[in-house]
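Feature request, filed as a ticket because there's no other form

It would be nice if the structure record came with a short human-readable summary line next to the tokens. Right now we just get the raw output. Example of a typical job, pasted below so the devs can see what we mean:
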Amino acid sequence: MKNVKTNDLVKLSFFVAIIVLLAVTPFLGYIPLGFTRATIIHIPVIIGSILLGPVYGAFLGFVFGLTSLLNNTFNPTVTSFVFTPFYSIGGTSGNFWSLVICFLPRILVGVVPYYLYKGMKKINNSDVLALGIAGVGGSLTNTLLVMNFIYLFFGQSYAQAKNVAFSTLYGIILSVIAINGLPEAIVAGVLTTAVCKALIKYTHRTALQ
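Raw output as currently delivered:
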């Protein structure tokens, strides 16, 4: 049992290192899109959730959120106030809800995929299907919660920062979900399936030795 726990902590450290590396590498972890950023950092969080469970997965999600907080504080865009209370533009400042947006969806990215994977395995024993759905679901958890929380907590300010009418904002949010969120989810599903399948096979083979 002690060896298993030590092994899991080593794996956790490995995933934390990947998240930090992605976050600090320009144009890799956080990809600038002018007024916002796309990201691939959710992928190691999803994989970690499936392999290590929801508790370690939630911690990886917290690390993801922390990198987002630091990135938006020290390397801001015009809409960074929705992710950090330490940034303001014009008369608009971040607040407590910035921390909710920054951390809660990312923590859940480390929880939801584990239960999707376990649930799908009970319905259908196919690893490929279960891993793919877990990857897609984890990615959409991040996108859907972040974008809808932005609308709920910062709708007027976000519309003003993007220089659009508030009445059209939710349509824009839906377009971001479709244009950025769906491709991110597909990539997450493919990579999660490929990486987790290889790691699960390797772990099983190692356990038999």
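Something like this underneath would help us a lot:
The beta strands are 30-32, 37-39, 88-89, 92-93.
The longest helix spans residues 166-208.
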